[in-house]
Amino acid sequence: MPCCALDRAVISLKSQDRGDDVAEFLGGLITNSLSEISPDAITFAALLTPQGKIIADFFVHKRAENHYLLETAQKFGTALALRLKMYKLRAKIDITDVSDDFTV
Fold it and tell me: Among 7, 11, 53, 9, which residue's Cα sits nearest to residue 31?
């Protein structure tokens, strides 16, 4: 049981089938490479505007081969999810807010 809950948003990125790689999708968008992260590992990254301004900074949790959780401050959660959905285009990736399922 947590001693205090933080105001954090958790966004799930999961491949709809085995063909699409979430790490490739995120790799072109965020500041860190996810190719060498092992399952259950955590890294810190950010999503930037084309001018280099920070949209959101977050922790990336690798849950499985094609399933990642992004944990960010609550105030960045909606903007981050919307921006990722905008970049998704034809990628077969589910982007959902799962903040109610996790306590940080």
Answer: 53
Q: What share of the chain is helix, strand, coil (3-state, %, to 5)?
A: 25, 40, 40
Q: What angle do CA 104, 48, 103 make, to 5 degrees?
A: 5
> For strand 8-15 and strand 42-48, is the pairing parallel, antiparallel, or unpaired?
unpaired
- Cα(93)–Cα(21) distance, integer angstroms: 8
- Residues 40-91: pLDDT tens digits? 789 999 998 889 898 899 999 998 888 899 999 999 998 899 999 998 888 8
Question: Phi and psi at residue 65, in whole multiples of 5°?
Answer: -55, -45
Assigned token pair, 97: 């807010």
